[in-house]
Backbone:
């Protein structure tokens, strides 16, 4: 197994083509694992404390060995960089056809550094790589950029697929995402801001080269077996029909939704339910990822008869809203109509901005208005004009999205790095503490699900390497009360009981390792969730990985591979000065009781420290500082990493004091508010 | 099947010259309109079977997904993709008819017309000759045409199922876009009323013949 690596320095315009040797796959599996390693290597030569918007930051795109080879698990590409909004490790996954096409171009990994003097895009056509002028694309939305590049580059030698930023990325908004093929956003962590800071508008790829498969027949047999397994899986049927939207009802039952900046845990109104979506709007899936047996994605076209509000959007067509688009639109900002929620998804995608972080910023300012903590004059100061800031008002919301994407007024400047930094900056400006209304977890990242009653979920928000996130250590065992899974994983059903803290930290630790494996294979996470035991990444998916790469491993060795990747991401954050005190969540989650639903009255603080302690124990890290130990790193064969950490005072027992990353980041990164 | 005259190729294969009685492929590929999601599983599986050793590359496929939206009972907007598949035409196939070197022969198992690469001079006459644009050219110049994988098409096995597309509840757990089906059976369906010929109609007919498994 080898992979192509493309290194582009935009400052000098140098393009280097390298091979990723087999040994690197042996150690880091592929996909996100290799991305992490490339970033780690980069920051051995460059200052890890650099401003994420500076030319020193690195921007990596990578696809794993299982992507696009007919496994049926769906393709996911992965971006890795230092996050401009949270100032820590940042990465983000996205599907579509771009990662599939990248494989056939011969470059599985694309590394961009430096900064171009003027807007450019990168055109990769098999071996031929060009840095092209993108002045004509600058200022265009993601959909239009994709269409223009498709027109420009044509269908030979293959169709063109793109990765682009919208206006938000161009303006270096911290929470800007990167959009694949104009449809599918790599939203989290702010990859768009990094691309914008490099003046890189897009990456376009065409390719018709081959991918070497170690055992093609073995792979075909495996994927035939996988398809048969999915055919017999009832959850797969539901997922094909609704994608992640089915979570709306499920969370409504368990009190896991997020309403009005988490002042509630249940959606209001009856309209925003997945049944209504399927009945009124669901159309054919023609925007799905490649190589996927499920194809949960779909497309809608608003005809105008669906609801009163739908009349405003007649003819609008886009991909259907995911659960988190719904949770941010219908939840965080209380939009109560499907057409409006879909429109919210479309505009945030087109400007290229993470709708979770943005919805929490908008929710924050709406809540201040609702509580009359800010006056009409304050609002005029923020927006330069009167603004209603009513919950669920889509016209208002659309304007706020533009304010942030185009950075046109103080609101846009304050909230360019999400709700946490916005709230902090605004509190400072007004001399008043508004932080209890800001929703955030580690690094200041926002998340639009209720987590107070779900200890693993809450712990994920506090420890995820890329900042508050559920997709690193997905807490399915406890959230869905899967006592059967708990038994299979730990030999006891207790992890499936969310009312007690036992084994919740363990869930995060073990599942983070499994997710790291899936991300490194370059496939989608959701197939695994349909039957976590039968489709285990360390055993069942591992067979497909072996058929593709020829790297054979036992189950236990594969789990160690996953753990090694998690430890590398952690190590990078430790170098930045992150310690136990940074593994935390916001005040509302920590101390305000859950307001409603079956878990009314639950507070995260009840179990928080206990779960976190247990997580560090299972990780083999130091509980007091939250730092890694040399013993653990040596067990994982990461002596080289341990040495770097020791030199940076970032290893347990060998460190003196940590650097406070939040303070440092703010000093270098405050956009400054003009008078 | 009627008896047909056979001629031996140098390599022992059976082949037919235009004008001979040619066999009629009894079982062939069918695709249901609009249900395709462009997941590319069929292309990838086809290339895994047919690429030079150990290499996966969609340029070696004998099947291609086209964006071909069609309006039907289910898809009023005409969203959708359609796999471009070889229809295994008979009497004789247009691709074989235009071949100046008679490089086409018929697979004894499936009766599918296949290209003898030793006889093929890569003139590419068969590419425009195909009314469905399903003869493809590999980067080496080799002409690629569906050979039905000797009777067990990889694309059909790889085709993901789309039961949710019909909005018909959990009736059809296995609803592939691609079928490997007897022409006679399919022909019966196609002779029915127009609404019985769209996705839903074909599905129901296949289901009643026990061709599609149903868990409901």
Residues:
């Amino acid at each position: 197994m080898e992979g192509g690596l493309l290194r582009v320095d935009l400052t000098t315009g140098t393009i280097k083509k390298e091979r990723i040797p087999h040994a690197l796959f042996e150690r880091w599996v592929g996909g996100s694992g290799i991305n992490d390693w490339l970033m780690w290597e980069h920051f051995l030569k460059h200052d890890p404390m650099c401003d994420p918007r500076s030319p020193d930051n690195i921007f990596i795109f990578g696809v794993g060995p299982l992507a696009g080879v007919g496994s049926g698990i769906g393709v996911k590409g992965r971006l890795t960089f230092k996050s401009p909004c949270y100032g820590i490790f940042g990465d983000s996954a996205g599907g579509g056809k771009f990662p599939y096409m990248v494989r056939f171009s011969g470059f599985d990994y694309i590394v961009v550094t430096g900064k171009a003097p003027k807007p450019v895009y990168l055109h990769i056509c098999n071996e031929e790589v060009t840095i092209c002028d993108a002045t004509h694309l600058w200022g265009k939305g993601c959909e239009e950029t994709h269409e223009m590049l498709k027109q420009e580059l044509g269908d030979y030698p293959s169709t063109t697929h793109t990765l682009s930023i919208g206006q938000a990325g161009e303006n270096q908004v911290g929470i800007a995402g990167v959009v694949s093929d104009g449809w599918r956003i790599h939203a989290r962590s702010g990859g768009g801001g990094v691309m914008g800071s490099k003046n890189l508008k897009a990456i376009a790829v065409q390719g018709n080269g081959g991918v070497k498969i170690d055992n093609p027949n073995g792979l075909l047999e495996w994927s035939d077996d996988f398809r048969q397994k999915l055919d017999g899986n009832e959850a797969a049927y539901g997922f094909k029909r609704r994608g992640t939207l089915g979570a709306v009802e499920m969370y409504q039952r368990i009190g896991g939704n997020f309403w009005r900046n988490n002042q509630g845990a249940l959606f209001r109104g009856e309209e925003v339910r997945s049944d209504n979506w399927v009945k009124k709007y669901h159309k054919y899936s023609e925007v799905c990822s490649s190589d996927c047996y499920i194809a949960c994605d779909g497309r809608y076209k608003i005809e105008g008869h669906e609801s009163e509000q739908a009349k405003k959007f007649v003819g609008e067509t886009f991909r259907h809203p995911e659960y988190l688009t719904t949770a941010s639109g219908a939840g965080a900002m209380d939009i109560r109509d499907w057409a409006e929620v879909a429109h919210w998804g479309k505009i945030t995608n087109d400007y290229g901005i993470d709708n979770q972080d943005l919805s929490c910023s908008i929710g924050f300012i709406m809540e201040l208005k609702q509580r009359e903590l800010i006056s009409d004059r304050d609002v005029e100061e923020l927006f330069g004009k009167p603004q209603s800031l009513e919950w669920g008002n889509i016209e208002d919301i659309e304007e706020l999205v533009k304010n942030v994407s185009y950075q046109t007024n103080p609101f846009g400047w304050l909230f360019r790095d999400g709700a946490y930094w916005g709230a902090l900056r605004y509190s400072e400006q007004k001399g008043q503490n508004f932080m209890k209304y800001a929703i955030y977890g580690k690094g200041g990242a926002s998340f639009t699900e209720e987590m107070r009653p779900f200890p693993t979920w809450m712990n994920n928000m506090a420890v995820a390497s890329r900042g508050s996130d559920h997709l690193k250590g997905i807490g399915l065992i406890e959230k869905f009360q899967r006592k059967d899974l708990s038994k299979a994983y730990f030999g006891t059903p207790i992890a499936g009981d969310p009312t007690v803290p036992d084994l919740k930290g363990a869930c995060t630790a073990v599942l983070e390792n499994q997710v790291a494996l899936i991300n490194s294979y370059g496939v989608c996470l959701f197939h695994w969730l349909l039957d976590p035991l039968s489709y285990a990444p360390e055993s069942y998916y591992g067979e497909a990985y072996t058929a593709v790469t020829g790297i054979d491993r036992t189950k236990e060795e594969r789990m160690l591979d996953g753990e090694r990747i998690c430890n590398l991401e952690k190590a990078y954050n430790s170098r930045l000065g992150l310690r136990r005190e940074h593994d935390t969540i916001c005040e509302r989650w920590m101390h305000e009781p859950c307001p409603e639903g079956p878990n009314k009255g639950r507070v995260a603080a009840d179990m928080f420290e206990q779960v976190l302690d247990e997580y560090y124990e299972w990780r083999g890290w130091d509980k007091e500082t939250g730092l890694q130990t040399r013993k653990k790193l040596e067990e994982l064969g990461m002596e080289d990493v341990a040495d770097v950490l020791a030199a940076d005072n970032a290893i347990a027992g060998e460190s003196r004091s940590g650097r406070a990353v939040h303070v440092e980041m703010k000093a270098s990164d405050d956009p400054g508010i003009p008078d | 099947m009627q008896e047909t005259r056979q001629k031996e190729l140098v390599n022992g294969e059976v082949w037919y010259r235009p004008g001979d009685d040619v066999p009629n492929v009894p079982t062939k590929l069918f695709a249901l309109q609009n249900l395709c999601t462009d997941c590319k599983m069929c292309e990838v599986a086809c290339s895994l079977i047919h690429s030079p050793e150990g290499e996966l590359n969609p340029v070696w496929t004998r099947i291609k997904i086209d964006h071909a939206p069609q309006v039907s009972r289910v898809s009023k907007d005409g969203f959708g993709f359609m796999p471009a598949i070889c229809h295994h035409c008979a009497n004789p196939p247009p691709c074989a008819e235009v071949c100046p070197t008679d490089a086409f022969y018929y697979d004894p198992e499936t009766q599918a017309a296949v290209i003898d690469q030793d006889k093929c001079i890569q003139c590419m006459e068969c590419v425009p000759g195909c009314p469905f644009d399903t003869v493809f050219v590999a980067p080496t110049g080799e002409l690629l045409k569906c050979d039905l994988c000797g009777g067990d098409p990889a694309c059909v096995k790889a085709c993901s199922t789309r039961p949710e597309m019909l909005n018909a509840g959990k009736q059809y757990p296995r609803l592939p876009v691609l079928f490997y089906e007897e022409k006679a059976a399919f022909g019966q369906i196609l002779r029915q009323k127009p609404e019985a010929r769209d996705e839903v109609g074909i599905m129901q007919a296949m289901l009643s013949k026990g061709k599609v498994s149903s868990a409901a």
